[in-house]
Amino acid sequence: MVRHKFLLDEEQMPTRWYNVIPDLPSPPPPPLHPGTHEPIGPEALAPLFPMALIEQEVTAERYVDIPEAVLDVYRLWRPSPLYRAHGLEKALGTPARIYYKYEGVSPAGSHKPNTAVPQAYYNAQAGVRRLTTETGAGQWGTALAFASALFGLECEVWQVGASYDQKPYRRTMIETFGGTVHRSPSELTAAGRAVLGERADHPGSLGIAISEAVEVAAQDPDTRYALGSVLNHVLLHQTVIGEEALLQLELAGETPDVVIGCTGGGSNFAGLAFPLLREKLAGRMSPVIRAVEPASCPSLTQGVYAYDFGDTAGMTPLMKMHTLGHDFVPDPIHAGGLRYHGMAPLLSHVYELGLLEAIAVPQSECFAAGVQFARTEGIVPAPEPTHALAGCVREALACKDSGEEKVIVTALCGHGHLDLAAYDAYLSGRMVDEAVSPERFASALAGVPALG
């Protein structure tokens, strides 16, 4: 019998999140105050986050216990399955063995509840009444609305304009879970009005939507801000993916040779990769770890490693990361969740240490991989993980040429049931690959703060 999936019982679900920082050769650079350029302390983050999350953001502990209330919600869909992609392997004619960790089984249809649930829990414990946030494709907004409903919080979401227009049913799903959605840039904030004043039909960006959500949260003592990627505590929460994957690969009798994931802000990729990186650093395995990003928003492969703002209006602390410049507005590609100008500071640091590699892929190649995956594995992937699938196809075909029987592991971070307009654009031949000129990159990078 051919075995397609490797499952864990609920009692095998991880009870701790993994923090990679203590295992790295050197710690990442600290965030800086935007005015003084001095390292900030926890008090600087208190207007936006509850203290429990701030402590996780700066912790030096290798493991953080998951609260029982969070574990109880996780059990609605965790542990998620690990699949062997027999159909895709056969179609590619490759000797490689491809495994994918499928996070589309969550209530929101993606990996995002892995952090939305603990963020809502800790805010509720701190007496917060309302959460504000941004969302691109809508998966994060959906996850936070779901988690907020569970813990009795209001949820207000600024959705990037291009995705708001492309994905109306994501908006409906957020509203079904009880969230309120605004098209960003909006007239509701000074940050939004400033952008609209320059261009009335602005497509928006994650940086702009973050500015709007942060502005509203900072003005209300009963409101806090929640971020779906980028920050250390978000990446920490996502490590349940990789911890489960290690147990499942053991069930399959496999050791990974290549680990591939899509990257926008970096949470899904880090969630899979960091526990496997721990094993690599300990000498127990030696996989190549590869990030795949959109060619139209290539922060790792085309950006600079510098201190920059996490948002467009410059409200956040300065974080050292691979950035295209906080003023960069990506093309309105269909992978809305990957349209962020910077990469998670912790992932950027790991990249600078030479512990992972990165490639950038155009969206038409990604959707070709997504369609092939749907026709061979039966799951329509979200546009974001089609980037990882494109990376897997490249690696599997290289194995076909070389004859190597590599084990390829990836994270399929969500389904594309609410992204079918994107597939329609691809299948009808209307999808185009936007070429970003060097001048556009240079213009945005010119706005990166000069810190001596």
UniProtKB/TrEMBL annotation:
The modification N6-(pyridoxal phosphate)lysine is found at K112. Its cofactor is pyridoxal 5'-phosphate. Residues 76-414 form the Tryptophan synthase beta chain-like PALP domain. Pathway: Amino-acid biosynthesis; L-tryptophan biosynthesis; L-tryptophan from chorismate: step 5/5. It catalyses: (1S,2R)-1-C-(indol-3-yl)glycerol 3-phosphate + L-serine = D-glyceraldehyde 3-phosphate + L-tryptophan + H2O. Pfam families: PALP (PF00291). Keywords: Amino-acid biosynthesis, Aromatic amino acid biosynthesis, Lyase, Pyridoxal phosphate, Tryptophan biosynthesis. Tetramer of two alpha and two beta chains. The beta subunit is responsible for the synthesis of L-tryptophan from indole and L-serine. NCBIfam families: PRK12391.1, trpB_rel. PANTHER family: TRYPTOPHAN SYNTHASE, TRYPTOPHAN SYNTHASE-RELATED. This is Tryptophan synthase beta chain. It comes from Aquipuribacter nitratireducens. The lineage of its organism: Bacteria, Bacillati, Actinomycetota, Actinomycetes, Micrococcales.
